[in-house]
Amino acid sequence: MQLRDIPNLISILRILLTLPIVWLLLEQQFSHALILFAVAGFSDGLDGYLAKRFGWQSYLGGLLDPLADKALLMSSFLVLGGQGLIPIWLVLLVIFRDLTIVGGALYYNFSVEEVDADPSLISKLNTLLQIMLVLLVVTDAGPFPLPDLLIEWLIWGTGLTTLISGAAYVWIWSNKARKKGWRI
């Protein structure tokens, strides 16, 4: 192991951190889950900082970092949706969008050219809203009740940006594939 592997190890630890967070959410120990969310959030910032600061960016890190984010968000959406804290329509929309993007990226990678993932601004906003929604829903269910209107607005904002960013990915990558041509 080398120092340049530290960001990847942090990402792997964040993936593993998903398990106790899901367990705490299932057990409705929301205050403890929030603490682990904070650790996960800090680790996300730390691995990115180390990779960029010291030039430790790698192809594996480019895969592990979003995988860790998606594992935590998807599992949190599923659990909170199952508990009725997030509407099922939003859980299904978020999952459908992510499956469409991953499926499209795999198809593009094997049918056109290697995918060079570059998240759009609307996609980054969507991820930020998803994270905020999970954190505020867990906070509301746990230590600090929040105004219903705040969570309601966040639900609709997350739904809207999920739709727009999913459609944008399909539009952009379909046009790229059309211009590059398909490999057979």
TrEMBL record:
InterPro entries in the cross-refs: CDP-alcohol_PTase-I, CDP-OH_P_trans, CDP-OH_PTrfase_TM_dom, Phosphatidylglycerol_P_synth
EC supergroup of this enzyme: transferase
GO function terms (MF aspect): CDP-diacylglycerol-glycerol-3-phosphate 3-phosphatidyltransferase activity
The keyword Transmembrane helix appears for this protein: yes
Main location: membrane
Superkingdom classification of source: Bacteria
Places the protein is found: Membrane
Single GO BP term: glycerophospholipid biosynthetic process
A single cellular component GO annotation: membrane
UniProt-listed Enzyme Commission number(s): 2.7.8.5
Pathways per UniProt: Phospholipid metabolism; phosphatidylglycerol biosynthesis; phosphatidylglycerol from CDP-diacylglycerol: step 1/2
Alphabetical UniProt keywords: Lipid biosynthesis, Lipid metabolism, Membrane, Phospholipid biosynthesis, Phospholipid metabolism, Transferase, Transmembrane, Transmembrane helix
Catalytic activity as recorded in UniProt: a CDP-1,2-diacyl-sn-glycerol + sn-glycerol 3-phosphate = a 1,2-diacyl-sn-glycero-3-phospho-(1'-sn-glycero-3'-phosphate) + CMP + H(+)
Transmembrane regions: 6-26, 33-51, 71-96, 128-147, 153-173
Membrane topology of the entry: Multi-pass membrane protein
Assigned protein family: Belongs to the CDP-alcohol phosphatidyltransferase class-I family.
UniProt-recorded name of the protein: CDP-diacylglycerol--glycerol-3-phosphate 3-phosphatidyltransferase
Organism of origin: Candidatus Thiodiazotropha endoloripes
